[in-house]
Structures are given as C-alpha cells and as structure tokens.
Amino acid sequence: MKYIFHLSIFSLLFLACKGEASQQVQTESNPEQNPPNIIVIVADDAGYADFGFMGCKDLETPNIDNLANNGTIFTDAHVTASVCAPSRAGLLTGKYQQRFGFEANGTGYGGSGDIGLSDDVVTMADVFKAHKYKTIALGKWHLGGTETDHPNERGFDEFYGFIGGGRSYFPIKNPSYEHMLQQNGKQVVFDGYLTDVLGDRSVAFVEENKNQPFFMYLAYNAVHTPLEAKESDLEKYKDAPRQYLAAMTWSLDENIGKLLKKLEQSGILDNTLIFFMSDNGGAHNNQSSNGILKGWKGNEFEGGHRVPFIVSWPSKIKGNQTFNGLASSLDIFTTSLAAAGIKKDGTLELDGVNLLPYLTHEKTGNPHDKLFWRKLEESAARVGDYKLVRLENFGSTLYNLSNDIGETKNLSQTDSLDYNRLQNEFNRWESKMIDPLWGEEKPWMDVTYYIHKQLMQNKEVLYKAPPDKDDQQ
Hints:
The chain has 473 residues and is an alpha/beta fold. Helix content is 27%, strand content 17%. Helix 3 crosses helix 8 and helix 6 (194-209) runs parallel beside helix 8. It starts with 12 loop residues before the first helix and ends in a 17-residue tail after the last helix.
C-alpha cells in the first residue's frame, strides 16, 4: 500500500456540504409521533465480555443491563476500526473512514500536521442540526484539534468535553488545550471525577431540551487508561480481581443510569432512540476482557472490532431481544435518519444500513453481507461467515466464524475457493478507498505488525506496546 503523508487540500465542497446540509436531506413527517430524540453512548476501550448483558460476572453494570433488557442486544456488531479516532470518524460520518483517508489512530502525524476529519464530509450532527434538532457532543472528541474540526464547526451546538484522545479523570493543573475540559472552547474548571461531570452535564442537557428533539453524542473516556477511580468505588471493589476496571465501570454505569432516569422522569424515554457501544475492542492495558474473541484493541481479529452493542427505542422496538445478524457502527447514522423521518438524497453517501426493519421483524437475516477493515499494514474482510485477515508482506489467513469464533483454524491452504473469493472482495472494496493521509509512529507500527504476525500463527505475543508507551493508544 502506498502511504501519503501530507496536508489534504480541500475544495469548495466544504462550503457546499456544510452550508447545504439541509438540502441533502428532506424530512418525512410522521403525524403519529414527534421526532425521536437520538442518543449515541460510546464507551472507550471496553471489552466485549465486560458487561452483565454480555455475561460478565465480576463487573457490575445494572443500568446498562436494564437498557439492554429494554432493547435489543447485538452479538455480531462491529466498529469500523480497532482504535479510537478512526472508529469515531466512521461512526459520526456513517461511511468507511478510508473514503477520506482517516484510518490511522490520532488525527495526523509528522509532516502531515493535524488533518482530522475531511472538511467535505457531513456528520450526523450536521444533518440533525439542519433539521432543528438541538445537538451536543459530550466527552472525548479525538477527531481533530484545528479550528475547522472543533465540534462546534461539525454540527454540534454545544461541545462539553476534551479535544484529545485521553486525559486524567481528575482535575489537571494548567491543562493543555487538548486535555482541558471545555464548553464551546472555554475552559471548564471542575472538581471531582470526570465521568460524573460528563454524566451530570448529560442530565442537565436533557432538562434544558426535554421539550424539543435533540441529538446527543455521549462519548465517555471510561474505561480508557489511565486506570483512575474514586476512592469510594475502589473501596467498594477492594476484593475484586479487576479492581480498577470494576470501579471505573461502576461509575460509567451509574452515570448512564442517571441519564436514563432523567429521560424517564421527563416523559421522553419511550421516544428516545438510544445506541450503546464501545469504540473498539478491549485494550490490553486496562484489565478488560474480550472473552472468547481473539485479539484486542489495535488489531483486526474479532477482539479488535467486535463490540457490545445495544439499540433501544421503547415506543417502537420490542425489548428483551437478541439479534445475531451482522451489523456495524456505520448503521447508526442511517438508522437514526430513518427513525427521524429524514430522507437523504444521493449527495449524502452512507455505507450503513437501516436496522429498524430487522428490529421490528419486517426483515430477517443479515443487515450486511460484507464488512471491511484496514489500518495501514493490517486489514480484514468479512463475507458471510468467512473472515480474511491480511498482513502486508506476510500473507493472509482465513477463518469460518460459524464454527471458529476464536479464529484459530486457518483455512487458507484447504479452502482456496473461499480464500480467493474474500481476497477479491477485499480488493474491490479497497479500490474504492483512498490511501491514508497519515500514519503512526514507527514503534507502534512495528509492535502492531509483530502482534498480527504472532496471532496469525497462533503464537504467543510476548510484548504488546513499545517501551514506556503502554498508555498512549
């Protein structure tokens, strides 16, 4: 693959897309119901098996489990990237982030400068704001730190969070712009624990906007490193085998519970479409668990991109359901438009599928028959039950996930028909993408390459991060 590391040159499409967002979509009125509120809740680096609704026994998540019980649990849902920044880019734009060169972690590297989101892509917030939704982004942004990439310039009426990819959960003395908690560009000085602060603002926002439709992107940095928790929660879990993760997860759950309670008290829970997911698989350095899945954050095995996923809309979707079809975070944008009665025209390119017909049983089967991933030298393709994992200058492995969810049996030498079929499918997809606009630090690329090579051979991984950089991804 050819890598291009430069500042992207943006055309007048920026003005066209941003100024004409309202012309790209049309509202289809629903006389039976007011437009639903849309809430997307994103946990950070949470493991596939680290919630009660996913079978976890040592971490307590009663409020998230209640959301799952009142909604639909997806068992085969995926994000578009195995690391934070490109995953969020795919979610908020509803398209493969490789279409606009955003596939490495971070928002630029070396000579590229800070590129972030291409200015000619439309976000969910752009569209919902154009249709008179009140929009807010809370928590972690990690999609660019330049003026044109500030959340207030990407469709959000309010940004209450921090620009960078991670920070302490406690107050920082003299924080950098990247790490400071801010509200629309102005620093917020807070006391206490950041997960609580973000949760409190989510509740206040609902109170302020309960009489109008809103779109909330609630991106907690929990349970990303650093491993920091309140003393009271650490005491609560003093005997837990994963003490810090248990305490951090408990706080995350508490604050999601506060939001759900506020929605119910305000009489708008039933008409609120809520998505809950992790931005990628559990990380190797935060005590998380991906259960039976192979791999973790940063690689293209199932543990890197298959995530816990809940969809809840009590007035429209029956609760206590499990859905086993192949789904993606790409679907959040498309599904939300359908729920709100907003019809897109051909100028808004989305790669997602409307999940609602599957959740109301109007359709059966898989929303997607194919999904693809690429992060610089590592990539993967999913077609039906088959999964191809590729590593540049090394080779590819093939798995049948229907009987090998752990990706241990390489079929590349015994099933040439499916092996070639998936190679061809990936090549067709890749031909529609562009080269990445930036890369990553060589130490991280070397480690990621090593991890992939070991996992493809079912060999032990002896190290998972460059020296002294365990908390940086």
